[in-house]
Amino acid sequence: MNFRIYDTATREVRDFVPLEEGKAGLYVCGLTVQSEPHVGHVRSGVNFDVLQRWLRALGHEVTFIRNTTDIDDKILAKAAEQGRPWYNLAYDMHRELDRAYAALNVAPPTYEPAATGHVPEMVELIETLISRGHAYAAEDGSGDVYFDVRSFPDYGQLTRQKVEDMEAAADADPRGKRDPRDFALWKGWKSEKEPRTASWPSPWGRGRPGWHIECSAMAGKYLGDAFDIHGGGMDLRFPHHENEQAQSRAAGQGFASYWMHNAWITTAGEKMSKSLGNSLTIPAVLSEYRGIELRYYLVGAHYRSHVEFSFEALDEAATGLRRVESFLERAGVTTEAGTAELADLPADFVAAMNEDLGTSAALAVLHDTVREGNRALADDGTAGVASESAQSSARHVLAMLDVLGLHPHDPAWATGASDVTGRLEGAVDGLVAALLEQRTQARADKDFATADAIRDRIKAAGIEIEDTPAGPRWSLGAPPADTRGK
RNA sequence: GGUGGGUUGGCCGAGAGGCGAGGCAACGGACUGCAAAUCCGUGUACACGGGUUCAAAUCCCGUACCCACCUCCA
Questions:
Q1: Domain assignment present for A179
Q2: Nucleotide nearest to A166 (CA to C1')
Q3: What is the pLDDT of residues A57-92, one digit of tens each?
Q4: What is the ipTM of this complex?
Q5: Which residue is nearest to nucleotide B30 (CA to C1')?
Q6: Which member of A28, A56, A377, A441 has the greatest number of CB atoms within 10 A?
Q7: Three-state SS for A130?
Q8: Stated in angstroms, how far is A83 CA from B35 C1'?
Q9: Does A127 lie in the same domain as A11?
Q10: pLDDT (tens digit, 9 = 90+) per residue, A402-413?
Q11: Which of the nucleotides lies closest to A448 (Cα–C1')?
Q12: What letters, b where the CB count within 10 A reaches 16 and e where it falls short, cover A345-355?
């Protein structure tokens, strides 16, 4: 069975056929680094990370390019507001984003080009567009260069819109434009309003690139004239992706074969916006939840479905994940992250993933396998040793988790955890062990009042106790509900 | 005005003509000193009104409500 993906351009699920057998070229629009990343931003990162991992699992050699936009109007405006250099803000937020990705086990791409590092490539592309009659320098002396929408008959093809129905682009003073829908490829430097550091030399004078041209230039540079998949968030379809495609194709390139767009995370029914409250920034959420829990929550919904974010739902997801983790612990099996192979995965799981990354259905297979394993474990009696059947289930579970970037022993989850965390765990383990010894003695003496009092005290400290055939086990309980997300 | 998406059980969340995805919660049973964990069992959900069909959550027509994009956006 083939891997099939929903292509936004054709609005249908199609077999994935790479341009070159065994290879996959993937370009994803990353973020404009202008503020702390929130849950919505990171959803895109996680979704395309799953895509990338799945392509690899299927045996493709993946070249994954994800850009960052480190110069634009908002960055300049925010930096000015905060009284610091724009490049400092961008760099700072970029590091914040890297931390967020790392905390969610989003693997780094093959390369992460930044717009400011590719100005010559953009200038080259703009020159090509001008020479082919698809772009022109504004005649008002502003130093702007525009893409000539009317010169490219396919404009609007990606989002099925007619040029006549579109509203005018507001990205520059319309006086220099031939058509109000023309969009900026290059923005002349406004010396009185913008810092000189935010301008680069060009044949049209100092200036900076328009928003869309960077992706055309960088995708072309790193993936070639034609490549397989282009991804990004739903809101980028228009104008960003429409314009990218227009630029690249007008320049004679084939560009992307497939377009994939991830849906939104909303809060209180509204799109999460950078201007909204910041309780949902990644650092804030990770102060209450483990990265693996947030990732599991995000993977649980199909990438094209809207998700209404709530801490209640995140709690549920965390509980569900703990069920899986608890099974693995009791089965006593572990594997190394990143070693899963297609052969280790249940056929139903593979089928689910092959159908446009059906992660929800894939998790259903995961849970079915966990139940099988638990059943085997329950049948294993009191010997305390997991049977071959239970171990086999555990290996399947680990392989599935691995492919989804949810392997519990992936060193990535240790990101941010210092040595102190490990030492603290050891210390807690020692203290709890001492208390548990007392409790075990009390139980042996049939002094259940004392035994239960000890258990209650441990529980009050946020630690759950389970009695197993092999003796008591402790684990950290869920965070108290009344403190979350504040 | 143009383009696209959505409404599924107490909750989250898949599915897209025919055996009730899965999770969380709840209830009953097993296990346990009691719990916890685990296992077994318990649900006749698909916004509304029509229609097509042997069969509709799924297709068609209509209605209501919600959301996104239309040049800042993951």
A1: yes
A2: B70
A3: 999 999 999 999 999 998 999 999 999 999 999 999
A4: 0.94
A5: A378
A6: A28
A7: helix
A8: 59
A9: yes
A10: 999 999 999 999
A11: B33
A12: bbeebbebbbb
